[in-house]
Structure formats: structure tokens, C-alpha cells
Amino acid sequence: MSQNHSMDIVSEIDLQEADNAVNQALKEINQRYDLKDSNTTVELNKKDKNIVINTRDDYSRKASIDILQSKFIKRGISVKALKMDEPETAGGGRSRQKINLLSGISKDDAKIITKMVKDSKLKVNAQIQDEQIRVQGPKIDDLQSIIKMIKEAELDFPTQFVNFK
């Protein structure tokens, strides 16, 4: 009886956790003495999957981003999921920063992962399925080796492993 085991490699963000991180960051920004009068806003747009920080100056913007990143880490969301756009000047000399939340594995990134899996010489099969990758193999140990290899790789995006069967 030959049973194939499988798992999916995905790159997802829990938007509820992201919302909680944004709310905690905003609370800390409003309480910090050096940022108190900056009238900083941090808004999460769940539909477009982005965050917009609007603040008084560059110092406040950078400090707000640091706070936001620390809250994401505490909530278990990788900062690799945050893709910063170029800062822009908003009305009244204010500074605005748009941060996109990366979700899903792009075709190019999926090809990188499938090449890594094939180069590992393990008896597993990797298939790209939409924005995720399914890895199948007869041995669970091989799948665990793939997980270890991908976690150790320096990828530009966060990865999670789901549907391990």
C-alpha cells in the first residue's frame, strides 16, 4: 500500500492579526512622548491589502514604521510580508508611507521554490497551484526536509506550510 503524503507551501497574512497589530501600533504611537503631537494615522485597508501611514515628518514616519514592524513580529506575522513603497510628501508638508501586504506566492517565486525542491534530490514532486505550491512524496521525512530547507533559505517573502497529510 503506497500512500503519498503532501503539504502546501503558501504565503498568507492573517488580516485580523494585521488589524490587531495596526491598532496596537497606533495606540503606542499616540502614547509615545516624541510622537504625541505628530497627528499620525495608520490605516489598514483589508480589501486592497495595504497600510497607509500619514504623519508630520520623516522622523515620525520612520518611528511609526519601526513600531508597526515590532507589533507585526509580536503577532507572529513576518515583516517580509510588508513591502514598502517610496515615501511621499502629503499636503501640508506631511509625510505619507504606503505599505503593501504581500499575500500569495508569485509565479517567479514559485519557480524558485520548485527549483529548490527539485535540486534537493529528494523523491518528492512539487507543483505550482495558483498562488501556492503542493509538494508530494512517499516519505514524511522528505517533506520535513523540504520544510527545513525552505525555512533556512533566504527568501524575500514569508512562507507557511499547511495541509500536511
Description:
The protein is α+β, with helices and mostly antiparallel strands. It has 2 domains: 5-12 and 104-162, Alpha-Beta Plaits (2-Layer Sandwich); 15-101, YajQ-like, domain 2 (Alpha-Beta Plaits), CATH 3.30.70.990. The chain has 4 helices and 9 strands, in the order βαββαβββαββαβ. The protein has helices at residues 15-31, 58-74, 107-119, 140-152, and strands spanning 5-10, 41-45, 50-55, 82-84, 88-89, 95-101, 125-129, 132-137, 160-162. The strands form 2 sheets. Strands 2, 3, 4, 5 and 6 form a 5-stranded antiparallel β-sheet that branches. α1 packs across α2 (58-74). The longest helix is centred in the N-terminal third of the chain and has 17 residues, at 15-31. The model has no long low-confidence stretch (mean pLDDT 86).
The top-level CATH class of the largest domain is Alpha Beta
Number of helices: 4
Overall mean pLDDT stands at 86
Question: What is the CATH architecture annotation of the largest domain?
Answer: 2-Layer Sandwich
Structural class: alpha+beta
Note the main sheet: 5 strands, antiparallel
Strand content: 25-35%
Radius of gyration: 20 Å
Number of domains: 2
Morphology call: elongated
